[in-house]
Amino acid sequence: MIFFSHQFAVFTGLFFIAYWAVPIPLARRLLLLLASVTFQVHFSGPAGVLPIIVLAVGTYFVALSRNRLLCALWITVCALALIFYKYTHFLFQGIIGVAFPDLAKSGEEALAGILPTLPPLGVSFFVFEFVHYLMEIRRGHRPIRSPLTFALFTSFWPSLVAGPIKRYRQFSVSLSHGARNVSSDDVIAGMVRLAIGICKKFLGDVLTSWIQSQQASFDVLPLSVRWGIVVAIAFRILLDFSGYSDMAIGFARMMGIRLPENFNWPYIAHSITDFWRRWHISLSTWIRDYIYIPLGGSRHGLMRKSLNGFIAMALCGLWHGAAWNFALWGVYHGVGLAIAGALPLPRLLSEKPPLVFSSFRPAALAATWLAWRGFSWAATMLFVMIGWLLFFYPVDQAFHMTLRLFSH
Amino acid sequence: MTRKADRSQDRQAAPHESGRNSARFASFVVGAVLAFAICAAVGWKASSSNIFRDFGRFHTRLSPESFFQPTAREVMALARELLDKNKVNVVIGGSSVFYGVGQPEGQTIADNLRRDLGENYRVINLAMRGGDVSGIAEQTVEMLLREQYRVVYVSDIAVGGTVTLLGSTPYQYYFWDARARNMLIDWPARDQRLTLPWYAEQRMSAMLNKYLYFMDLWNTIGYDYVFTVYSTLIPGHFWQARKDLPDNEIDPPEQFRYRNGELELQLIKRISEMPTEPEWTLVGTALETALPDVVRKSAVLAVCENSPWLLEQAAPETQAIRKAMRERMVKRVMEVGPSSLLACEGFEKDDYIDRVHLSVSGAAKIAPRLADRVRATSRNNGWVQ
């Protein structure tokens, strides 16, 4: 991946030397923009940077107009661009092709000339940030007037590859601070964070190699090793995602800029709700703010709340990749969240021990509460880990592997 | 946020890092630079002398296959220790055939050749599994020739097989490493073809390593102390110091030989199509491009045919095509410089362990044939009487 190439190492080395050496804030901003554009152009892949530039320029001017209708229209354009670049193949093969294979084939052939083999680098992050920005403008917040600041919000290179998804108001303030003054504390904290990210990514890669070497013989492995693989998958995903986030946050901090946190010990969560408060926080809050709440959130009864949750989580799943297993992984968590929020039994898995235990003596209550927390944590982890099989493998394989976890 | 506000903030943002902050920052930078410099110096020092002990070959647990990537400096340090400028040196290269799959340590082609050639020669086995005529061994030959060693390069080449420009993919890093350090022979025919975009990352890696010696340092740590990258080839011991992992190549027992006989027979049929004239031309051109002329002049390329036991089971027309291909291959190779021989003519079923790899007895049989060619090449070059 990009952060682990030697070309990237040289790029960052030269960039930071220049960034720290230049004392003028405006020059720092210009240097950061130059680096971000260079990064995007160099690593953009076959799709190039033109689609992102068009979307960014449109977003900037539409936001300046502060016209709610125009904002809504441009949000639609951004979403369509994302669907076109990232989901066209899935739409044809995974949906249309199921019922009308000829239509899907001819459709793909018609688009073959204009659809690049890979989507533009970071297109999901770009679109989510543009949508966030335009939604905030629609809600009455003031747009970024400076083209330079907007360009930096758009193209800030540390968060281009794997987030975190930025919020423009926090970022603008932080950018301004970073351009004015980078303290040694920032640089050291950033480097430590970067080192943690690199180590996490490295450990994640070791786990990936081990998982790949074992998964072919999953069916014939002892049950304990099968469960070991599932646990390894869970840690591999965490280490990989959070490693990249740590690196992005570390790079930004080395510039004196703070990016939002993305992970907060998700595997100590004791409920599904708690898990989503700790896992990929910038994405889950984005989904909450710009999909779940606009759909009605929890305001229109249990059924509607559950339906909104399913839709939001299915989209969250699809954001990770254009395949059915991602969508089903999202729905799986949507179901988990709905059950956790609706039924008495899963509610017992959340924050507090059931009231029935309150009549116990304090020591017994504490012990019971601890046991309850342990049980709720184990149940949550079981749910999450089985979900990762769906995230990692095609649906039928994930289902088969899940069955094999519970049979000799 | 208005543009005015932005400008105002920028004006406030004069470079006013406090003196204390600047001093801390400067000391941090100096510390970081010093740490890098020390690591680079240790890497340089480590690869200045041979790190490999009791070297036989780059076996699977000590090769790029298992993510141990010896650098050009390290291999040269090894070669300097094992070879002798006052003698004729033989560098074995090529694929798993000459690496010695199926031949335990001490019974490889290289070991037999060493015994056959005697005291006036030195032999080192740098062949790699999945390797090629070009690659680590050939590039080491270039480096040795630059240091005025007398070298005969001995490699296997498949019937009808071509040669890649820089060696097989897992070993290409070595070319870029040696090239960045200016250790290779200038060879414009090869250099002109190094423009592919996917070479950029390897080139950059080698350029960084040239100054920072991180690969050299990490190899020393990995060889002597602890390894950090998981490899499916050594799943239970991937962290172990590579020096503690012995060469585990075995002489396979009878029941493990020719295990995929039927599949291999089908493969023989598939690869037995007489190349066209342009394709034969390409075989020679690829050799001329990948190997500098000075290397080709002192190279012995052994054309190794598939197991005769399997060939005998193929259709008569397939056998006829293979025969014609073998003879044409030898001729084409010799046209572009190297000495070439049909190295496995007259071999029997037991001289192979599968379609291509020689058994211990095959290694013992092929070595005298190679030794003759090595002596002839040495005489032709005026190194021996």
From TrEMBL, chain A:
Gene Ontology MF terms: acyltransferase activity
Membrane-crossing residue ranges in chain numbering: 7-27, 39-62, 69-90, 110-135, 147-165, 227-249, 307-324, 370-393
GO cellular component: plasma membrane
Localisation: Cell membrane
Membrane-related topology note: Multi-pass membrane protein
Pfam families linked: MBOAT (PF03062)
Pathway: Glycan biosynthesis; alginate biosynthesis
Broad class of where this protein is predominantly found: membrane
Biological process, per Gene Ontology: alginic acid biosynthetic process
PANTHER family referenced in this protein's UniProt entry, alphabetically: ACYLTRANSFERASE, TEICHOIC ACID D-ALANYLTRANSFERASE
Record family assignment: Belongs to the membrane-bound acyltransferase family.
Descriptive protein name: Probable alginate O-acetylase AlgI
From TrEMBL, chain B:
Keywords: Membrane, Transmembrane, Transmembrane helix
Bilayer-spanning residue ranges: 21-44
Taxonomic superkingdom: Bacteria
Name of the protein this chain belongs to: Uncharacterized protein
The species this protein was found in: Rhodopseudomonas palustris
